[in-house]
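Narrative summary of target 7.
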Amino acid sequence: MSRFYNMLRRLAQRGSPARKGVNPGVKRHVEVSIGIYWGKTPFELFDAESIQNPVLSPRQVTDARAQIVADPFMVYKEGNWHMFFEVFNLDTRRGEIGLARSSDGYRWAYQQIVLREPFHLSYPHVFEWQDKYYMVPESGQTNSVRIYEALEFPTRWTCVGTLMEGGPYVDAGVFNHGGIWWMFAETSAGKHDTLRLYHADDLMGPWGEHPQSPLVTGDASRARPAGRVTTFHNRLYRFAQDCSRAYGDRVRAFEINELNALRYQEQEIPQSPILEGSGTGWNGRGMHHIDPQQVDEDSWIACVDGFSETIVEAS
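Modeled conformation, tokenized:
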């Protein structure tokens, strides 16, 4: 089940402490939405006044009763941006993968649910490889990493393989570097504090664990992935959720200094954390995901998510 949904349920059920002038029956309504940030680099992004954030909220989902839209990834194809994200369906209590479309990257229209399974799905990492489109959504309830191929992009997907089996692989993301496929995944089964690295010569495997893996143990501030690995000025960067204070709190960024079959090394960039809660509005409580995309030489946009909390007093 979605970590966000579990958090929302706990908050909703927890009344505020009784104090003078406050109704002890108040409840907290927490909502997760998606926004678009803009900036000159993937690490210096902001909520521009020209963009009406959030660009997607649960209320815009028309084919499921949703409280969460989160974990957005987007790709550009034939003049349109296509965004894929988790929709937590309150009726099935499972995450499903939704689709939104935009011609300019700033104004988005919800389309439909494009992938449902009898288990929870989230974190739909979508990418293009050799003229085909693939999706690696989190399917942690199956203790595996599954890969889907688009039969008709962007609306029809089919599972074409299982990349990994035998463990709680959370928010797995794959990328190709130096002719080798790499995969980051968080594997602590709920503590958000263990990051492992895997590699393969072919996308479909077989996959093996890197000799330095696990790369992070016992540190919830930088283990869990927060979006796809990004290239900027020919350097690789990974994004991590900072869950040390609370799940979904903020996003940190790390430059990958060395990545080969024997060694891995990274360092946090000076701008980190690059995303965190604004204190008010749709992302007032926290932000936990980013997918930056370069649109021209000096311009980047990113789909991000954030969550808000509203106090509702009982009548």
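The helical segments are 3-13.
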